[in-house]
């Protein structure tokens, strides 16, 4: 029965379906996306089984909840459950139902502070209604606020020159997007002109990048981050990868940098960024700066510095990154093409479900800006609540405003909690046999290395699985904790001489019950090692 | 100065930018998107000038407001300003700020009816928080409601068989999307396996389709709707287009049908749809049914009937569309691959800014469903407020519930208003010299034909513009009314023997001040004809 597996189907004719694995776009078939793969599906099945306690499989599960440590989804219920910022949700509710602003009972009860009401009115003055399409680049008042935010952020960064105008941003070069990923996909599509185009991505990387390159049939040029130096970006290693690809005929056009790093949590130094910018200029490469974790910084020794700030500083006379500048280098500020991405999904806001992001294009040809705008128009506009999220992200309550103190308290609490959890998990990992992890300087993840014995490798082979998948599936089965194997980020297990491997996995630092998380993981890891010990 | 036009740029070096019109993806360059082109940009400029009355250009404008009749954006302020449904916004506000549900003052003031509170709780029980990512296909409870809606809609359609189970839908075959357009783009990408793949689209068409086909480098197979029969779909004409394309080596895989029609407002008869389904089966074509206007129906003589309903009816013994069925035909129900799209942006809801939509896949290979799911995962999930919009669309307040009457009153008022405006505009158009328009059976648009004299054609040529663009730009300059020329929908001006043309434009029927709209348009049209009369 050729079509016995067809959905809805009980056909016995000779009809051949049009759309089959063999006939669809082969580049879609090639896309790999590990963050939501077999592990995530199995975790969903367990969660459903736990939710209906009458069903028999539940009784066999050795845990009573699923901890989704596989995705940076801070507000997920019930085991992460980061609380939204009160000011955000007040403004959002008022824009949804503006009559609340004029309701006598609501006013009398002082449910909404004056600055939330003022902000809702300001936003509605521009967008009219959250039910209307906005300008395809995003509401113009919000893009202006983004430009002000960028200038303010960069002019108050460490070692910024005095003149704030040096860090100006143009609202017309800013596009609001459906999360940062919407912008990444759009710009990759612009850049990839033929199958010979290559884009350099870090290994390990966030799989959006490899997936998008597969989808648009571009060449993936991999460069390895340095695990023995806090996953820093080694420009020489990057250069070697790019030269090798170019020798093979690949038209390498851009370098993706994720800073702070995902999955690796490093935060690049200003000198490292300056070297990268110089390199991009010398090699004619567009810089894709994924800076969505810029607010997730856990160590004052390594503050976040934006690519835009470093780029603009090249126009200054002063030396940079410890090196003197040539006249040629001073032109870098006006020549290197840079895209910077930001998002409301991460940081201390964690508002993933609104799908809000933006990118800024720096030094891009205006005709190309026109093409990007045209493509944004085809998708009409990003969701208005996502855009409003961007407005709130870039323009939080100011000192003296009624919501200022609560906003500060809530956001500081979230950041401190994340840092505590990260430190606790990092310490616990490093006390376990065969596990070592770098401290997270930023972002929402730890990426521990795990040494596994040969018998574990053999057991994985027997099941036809990558050994890191095998380990993570075993972890899920034993603990209900769902993480992502390193191979999902392009970081494959490294074979050792003794037949064992060094493998990686990524876990978020978002689990509410950190101690229980660690306890469950530790027990699993010890039992796993005992089971497969030689 | 080679780079004098470069954004941010005052470089004088020999640096060659990486990203230029010459180097980007050529398929992006080829995309045409008329709904937001020169006309829309000029309208934006006028709107800005009107908003700052001190600036000099305003004084010269012969109108005091812009009427955006170019996009179906019902809630746009100030000239369309369709009011959102109260129930929708109550539920949305409660999901944004759940503490409102428990606030004593809010409860005492009875601001939120019990069914809005219950719905908000039900939604939050599933999604946890509007700030969290959902399942990539959309929240599971909402997809279940969509499946119930489809079954209910189809089993209560005219001439439906008695057994509601015949019209069942599977929540696992339903994907929530970022508006309908997000789904269209995703599925086109799946279908387009190589540059020889072709998709048939109606002429005139909604430019999302031609733009998406250009972007993914597929062949556009055009089939003409019949203007002299209310823009009905002539299956013979469609067949001729497809056969011609196949003779030329095009692998035609799918037919797009927009029903009710955009820009043309027709609503297909059940017999017409049945013929199309037969044809799709005989020719192995996937049916792309764009049914986003299914709630915008203005004549009881032509009710909306879904493709899914007609498809499922093929499994019945009864004759269909007036024709008896062969055994072969009865298998159609389980064999023709159908995608149906729906949206919250149109209908009487008009909630464009939330970006909510869904599609249902019928008779698709389960492996292909897996690939579609994988691709949905790369984009994480559609906005939660868009998903909530879908929940409210498919599950409105039921009789007996507190919000039922208000919801009915509001939605009926919107539909009646749309019908009134449509009728008024249709009548006015047909009274003008050289203008004729079909009545809208459905959707949000009129697509009048305009006969222009040779001198108008010559004047357009002199300015290097298409004559319909020339006419629409003149309309904007004279009246502030922004519409879209027929060529933007692929319907080119038709040259006449006398050197004149018959051209088309699309206007929405959304303008709040319909009489003023008509008056402004009439004066312009008469003056335009007088100016260019031979």
TrEMBL record, chains A, B:
The Aminotransferase class I/classII large domain sits at 115-516
Give a GO molecular function annotation for the protein: pyridoxal phosphate binding
Query: Which GO biological process annotations does it have?
Result: L-alanine catabolic process
Per its Swiss-Prot or TrEMBL entry, what cofactor is needed? pyridoxal 5'-phosphate
Subunit structure comment from the entry: Homodimer.
Extract the SUPFAM superfamilies matched here. Answer: PLP-dependent transferases
Keywords for the protein's UniProt record, in alphabetical order: Aminotransferase, Pyridoxal phosphate, Transferase
Tagged with keyword Ubl conjugation: no
Mitochondrion as a keyword of this entry, yes or no, is no
Q: What Gene3D superfamilies has UniProt attached to this entry?
A: 1.10.287.1970, Aspartate Aminotransferase, domain 1 (3.90.1150.10), Type I PLP-dependent aspartate aminotransferase-like (Major domain) (3.40.640.10)
Coiled coil residues, start to end = none
Matching Pfam families: Aminotran_1_2
Give the similarity note.
Belongs to the class-I pyridoxal-phosphate-dependent aminotransferase family. Alanine aminotransferase subfamily.
What is the protein name stated in its UniProt record? Glutamate pyruvate transaminase
Q: What is the lineage of its organism?
A: Eukaryota, Fungi, Dikarya, Basidiomycota, Ustilaginomycotina
């Amino acid at each position: 029965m050729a079509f016995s597996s067809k959905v809805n189907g009980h056909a016995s004719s000779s009809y051949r379906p049009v759309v089959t694995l063999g006939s669809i776009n082969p580049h879609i078939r090639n896309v790999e996306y590990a963050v939501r793969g077999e592990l995530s599906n199995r975790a969903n099945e367990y969660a459903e089984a736990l939710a209906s306690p009458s069903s028999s499989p539940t009784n066999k599960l050795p845990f009573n909840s699923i901890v989704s440590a596989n995705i940076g989804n801070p507000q997920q219920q019930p085991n992460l459950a980061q609380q939204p910022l009160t000011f955000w949700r007040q403004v959002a509710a008022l824009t949804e139902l503006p009559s609340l602003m004029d309701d006598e009972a609501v006013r009398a009860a002082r449910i909404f502070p004056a600055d939330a009401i003022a902000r809702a009115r300001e936003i509605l003055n521009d967008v009219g209604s959250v039910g209307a399409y906005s300008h395809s680049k995003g509401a113009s008042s919000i893009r202006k606020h983004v430009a002000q935010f960028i200038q303010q952020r960069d002019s108050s960064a460490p070692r910024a020159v005095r003149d704030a105008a040096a860090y100006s941003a143009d609202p017309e070069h800013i596009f609001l997007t459906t999360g940062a990923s919407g912008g990444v996909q759009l710009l990759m599509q612009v850049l990839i002109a033929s199958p010979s185009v290559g884009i350099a991505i870090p290994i390990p990387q966030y799989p959006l990048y490899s997936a998008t390159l597969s989808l648009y049939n571009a060449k993936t040029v991999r460069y390895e981050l340095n695990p023995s130096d806090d996953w820093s970006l080694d420009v020489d290693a990057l250069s070697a990868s790019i030269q090798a690809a170019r020798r093979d005929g690949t038209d390498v056009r851009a370098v993706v940098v994720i800073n702070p790093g995902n999955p690796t949590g490093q935060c690049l130094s200003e000198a490292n960024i300056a070297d990268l910018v110089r390199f991009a200029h010398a090699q004619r490469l567009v810089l894709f700066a994924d800076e969505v974790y810029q607010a997730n910084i856990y160590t004052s020794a390594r503050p976040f510095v934006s690519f835009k700030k470093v780029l603009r500083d090249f126009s200054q006379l002063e030396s940079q990154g410890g090196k003197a500048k040539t006249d040629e280098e001073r032109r870098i500020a006006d020549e290197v093409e840079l895209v910077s991405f930001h998002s409301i999904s991460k940081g201390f806001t964690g508002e993933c479900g609104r799908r809000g992001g933006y990118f800024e294009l720096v030094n891009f040809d205006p005709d190309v800006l026109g093409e990007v705008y045209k493509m944004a128009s085809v998708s009409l506009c990003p969701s208005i609540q996502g855009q409003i999220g961007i407005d709130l992200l870039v323009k939080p309550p100011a000192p003296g405003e009624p919501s200022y103190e609560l906003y500060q308290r809530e956001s500081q609490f979230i950041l401190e909690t994340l840092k505590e959890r990260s430190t606790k998990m990092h310490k616990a990992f490093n006390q376990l046999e065969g596990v070592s992890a770098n401290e997270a300087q930023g972002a929402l993840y730890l990426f521990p290395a795990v040494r596994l014995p040969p018998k574990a490798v053999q057991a994985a082979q027997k099941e036809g699985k990558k050994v890191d998948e095998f380990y993570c599936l075993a972890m899920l089965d034993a603990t209900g904790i769902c993480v992502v194997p390193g191979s999902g980020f392009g970081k494959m297990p490294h074979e050792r001489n003794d037949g064992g491997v060094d493998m990686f996995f990524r876990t978020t630092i978002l689990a509410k019950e950190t101690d229980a998380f660690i306890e469950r993981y530790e027990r699993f890891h010890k039992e796993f090692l005992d089971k497969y010990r030689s």
